[in-house]
Design goal:
Length: 402
């Protein structure tokens, strides 16, 4: 059972969440709980670090960030005990979660669950700090934003749990962010592939890496409300019968990326490879790489999207490269957003792309970049149009409540 930040934001909410865990334990299940830091604490800790240092040291950043989840586990375990059920708090390192040493974005290497198993055998609920792990230097490290989802899925896989319940502040996964599209509909079940596309496209409700892991280990996920006892959304294996249809299942919006353009790049073999090699060396993530057709002068433009957090590093890298390869300049566009339509069968049904572009055109929204695949259609638009684009598409694809 994983409880997100809003679900453990104050003592009352912690008690309510603990009641659920205690009930499951009393009904006979062994229970492992994963908790996030309360409320917006992780954001607040990041802001705090920036007040003492412009470039906080990554190792110290992780020591700081890990405190949020540590507060939650202690309070949650106390709450379980006050409800009459034995419970024990475990930090990520105590729970045996081992990760690599890439501070603030570590990958899980292995989980050694012996301590969890012995606590469960003693009848206790284990309350594990999400988002954190221990690296090969015995230092605490964190797993990237939204990483408690990853901790929960990884533990469910290793412990061979019957399922992984993700308790959050919405009733499940919706056809679009219900905070932006009021008539968005709750989806009863989604395939791993669809959820991965949706999460990768910016739907914050589940961390993308956790879905990838759930898919590989066959962990069934139930995303549901921490506050209302109703069924949420199941994320599980695709049903065969749907595979041949073209369906639009949901929409996502991502305002967390910026666009970079290398302008007037000589049109020669190997240039795109050099661009990507330079970015890869710095571990900068890229998405939507688009190269325009060459002009008569033998140059083209290469555009790509990169996360806001690494955009300055990406810009510096490309500017250095531009000088070496003879490109004219690097442009950066900050005020953009990515709108994505997620579903299946888009390759065989061009009408879906036509409808997406037509809907944006009718709303007077200009499209800066487009990429498509069988599972998703993405458009980059001005950030100021992002929400209205999402609502217009939601209506056009008739995704709302009927
Ligand atoms: P938690 O703190 O529980 O991990 P998050 O804030 O990370 O919660 O994720 C839940 C939020 O995700 C919701 O409040 C909602 O605004 C947002 N969200 C974005 N897209 C969707 C979607 N398709 N369905 C449900 N929620 C979504
Ligand atoms: N507290 C961490 C974050 O805000 C991890 C999580 O909530 O999943 O990113
Ligand atoms: Mg989250």
């Amino acid at each position: 059972m994983k409880f997100g930040g809003t679900s453990v934001a104050d003592p009352e909410k912690i008690l309510r969440a603990a009641e659920r865990a205690v009930r499951a334990r009393k009904e006979g299940s062994d229970v492992v709980v994963v908790v996030s830091a309360p409320g917006e604490m992780t954001d607040e800790l990041i802001a705090l670090a920036q007040r003492v240092s412009q470039e906080p040291d990554a190792r110290e950043m992780d020591v700081l960030l890990a405190t949020g989840e540590q507060m939650s586990i202690a309070l949650f375990a106390m709450a379980c005990r006050s409800l009459g059920c034995p419970a024990v708090s475990l930090t990520g390192p105590q729970a045996g979660i081992h990760a690599d040493d890439r501070h603030t974005r570590s990958r899980i290497l292995e989980i050694r669950p012996q301590k969890i198993f012995s606590e469960l055998r003693a009848g206790r609920i284990c309350v594990v700090a999400g988002f954190q792990a221990v690296n090969p230097n015995s230092d605490v490290t964190t797993l990237g934003r939204g990483g408690s989802d990853l901790s929960a899925v990884a533990l469910a896989a290793v412990l061979r749990a019957s399922g992984c319940e993700i308790f959050t502040d919405v009733k499940g996964v919706y056809t679009a962010d219900p905070r932006i599209v009021p008539d968005a509909r709750k989806i009863a079940s989604l395939s791993y592939e669809e959820m991965l596309e949706l999460a990768g496209a910016g739907a914050q409700v589940m961390q993308a890496r956790s879905i990838d892991l759930a898919h590989r280990y066959g962990v069934r996920i139930h995303v549901r409300s921490a506050f209302h006892p109703v069924a949420g959304t199941w994320i599980e294996k695709a049903e065969e019968k749907r595979m041949e249809d073209a369906t639009v299942s949901s929409l996502a919006l991502d305002k967390g990326e910026v666009r970079l353009t290398l302008v007037e790049v000589p049109d020669k073999p190997g240039i795109a490879a050099r661009v990507l090699t330079e970015l890869a060396k710095k571990e900068i993530a890229v998405d939507m790489i688009v190269q325009s057709a060459p002009t008569q002068a033998g140059v083209n433009d290469i555009s790509l999207m990169t996360p806001r957090a690494t955009s300055e590093a990406a810009r510096a890298t490309l500017e250095a490269l531009a000088r070496r390869i003879g490109a004219k300049r690097v442009d950066i566009t900050e005020q953009v957003a990515k709108v994505t339509v997620v579903g299946t069968g888009f390759r065989r049904h061009a009408g879906i792309a036509a409808k997406m572009f037509g809907t944006l055109a009718d709303a007077g929204i200009n499209i800066h970049m487009i990429t498509t695949s069988d599972l998703k259609l993405c458009c980059i638009v001005d950030a100021r149009h992002a929400e209205s684009a999402l609502r217009a598409l939601h209506k056009a694809f008739k995704l709302g409540r009927r």
